[in-house]
Amino acid sequence: MDSVLYTLPENIRSRNYVVASYYIKLPKEVDVLKKAASLAIGQTIGTWIPIPGITEDIRERYMGKVVNVFDIPALDLETQVDTPEREYMIQIAYPAVNFGSDFPLMLTSLLGNDASTSAQVKLLDIEFPREFAEDFGGPNYGIAGIRKYTGIVKRPLLLNMIKPCTGLTPKEGARIFYETALGGVDLIKDDELFGNPTYSKPWERVKEYKKAAAAAYEETGERVRYFVNVTSGAGELTENVKRVQEAGADGIMINFAAVGYSGLKQVAETAEVPILGHAAGSGMFYEGTASGMSSPLAAGKLARLAGADIVMVNTPYGGYPLRYQKYMQTLAQLTLPWYDLKPSMPSIGGGVHPGMVEKYMHQAGNDIVLAAGGAVQGHPMGARAGARAMRQAIEIVMEGRDFAEASGEKEELSAALRQWEYIKG
C-alpha cells in the first residue's frame, strides 16, 4: 500500500493537516479504497494520471491522504450483507498549507465532488489542528464578552425582531422598537429579510432606533441593543459595516449562509461591535443526504470559526423537521471548549414562546439568547406585554419555581399561555 497516499491517524494528528469525514454510498462492486484515494488526490494535486511535474516531494507535501474507511453498518464479512449498495464513512487528511485560513479555497478542496473525482459525498465534520483554527480568530466577544457588553450576568438574553419583516421606514420601525423595548427585551434585530432597501437604509435605521432605545431607557432604566442587518453583496458589505458603525450601531447581523463564511470572517476582522450570525437558507448546505455538509458543521462549527459572537440556531420545535440530535450537536459546536477560540452564544429561534422557555433553558442552559418573534409581537395584549411575558417566564425558571403554578401569578404570562401551550421542560 502506498505510504504517501494512505496513512494511519496517529501519523497526522500532530501535523498541519485538516481531517475531513465524509459519508458516501457506492454500488457494492466499487472499491471504496480507490474511490477515497481519487478524492484525496483529485482535491489536492489534481490528477490521478502521472504527469510531468508531480514529484515525490509534491506528493508528500501537498497530496491528500486516506486516513480511515468505516463500513456502515460495521461489516467485515461478505456474508454479512447482500445489498446492491454499500455505505461508508471515509476520512481524508488535507495539507492545510494548500488553502490556509481561506474559507472559499478550503471548502473548494473539501467539498470536491465534481467530475474530476466523481465522488458524491456529504461532509460530516472537519477536524482542525490548533495552529490552523487559531489563524481564523473566531469570535471577538464570545459568550463572556456578550454578557459583559450587555451587563446581563446569569439569565438568558431576550431578543426580538422587528415585524413586519419588510416595508417599514426607519421612523415606522422605531415606533415598534420603542414599544417592544418597554417590555424588557435585551436585543432587537432586523428580520433577515430586511437589509438595504431604498426606503430604509441600515445606517438610517440605526439613528432612529437608537433614539427609540434612549427614550425607552428613560422609562425603564434598561438598555436595549440593536443589531442591524448589513447582509449584502461583497461590494456593499464593507461599506454597510462602516456606515452603521459610524451611525452608532450596537451590533451587526449578517447572514453567513448567503454571504459565505468568508464574508462573515471579513466583517469579524474589522467590526468593533458584536456580530450576530444568521443561518437563513443554510438548509441548502445540509438537507441533502448524499451531498453538502452536516447541519452542526454548516450552522455551528464554521460560523464560530468565522467569528460570529451570537449564532441563530434552528430547533426541532418550530415546524422545521430538524433532528433533536443535530440541534444539540450544533449547540455543542458553538459552546464547548475548542482550543483558545471563544464560544459563540446560541440564539434559539423557531417555536420560541413563554410556554417553551423552561424546555429551552433545561436543554441548552442559561448561556443562550431566546429569540422570540411572533410571541412578542403577536401577544394578545401587545408587544410590550409579549416581552414582559417572556421575561416573566425566564425569571420563574431562574428562580427554580414550579412553572405551571407560578405562571398564574403573572398577567402577561398567563395571557400568553392561554394562546401558546406550556411545554414542560
UniProtKB/TrEMBL annotation:
It comes from the Bacteria. InterPro entries: RuBisCO, RuBisCO_lsu_C, RuBisCO_lsu_C_sf, RuBisCO_lsu_fd_N, RuBisCO_lsu_N_sf. Residues 15-132 form the Ribulose bisphosphate carboxylase large subunit ferrodoxin-like N-terminal domain. Residues 142-420 form the Ribulose bisphosphate carboxylase large subunit C-terminal domain. CDD domains: RuBisCO_IV_RLP (cd08205). It holds the Pfam family RuBisCO_large_N. Belongs to the RuBisCO large chain family. This is Transcriptional regulator. It comes from Bariatricus massiliensis.
